[in-house]
Amino acid sequence: MITFSWNPWHGCHPFSVGCKNCFMRRADIRHGRNPEIITRSKTMFDLPIQKKRDGSLKVPSGSCLYVCFQSDFFVEEADEWRNEAWDLIKERSDVWFLIPTKRVHRIHQCLPADWNDGWPNVSFALSIENNQAARERLDQFLKIPCCHRSIFAAPLLEELDLTPWLETGKIELVSVAGESGLKARVCHFNWMEKIFYDCLKTKTKFTIHQTGRYFVRNGRCYIIPKKEQFSQAKKAHEWLKKEAGKKNQPALFD
Ligand code: SF4
Question: In principle, which of 72, 82, 213, 244 could form an S-S bond with 184, CB 3.0–4.6 Å?
Answer without folding.
Answer: 213
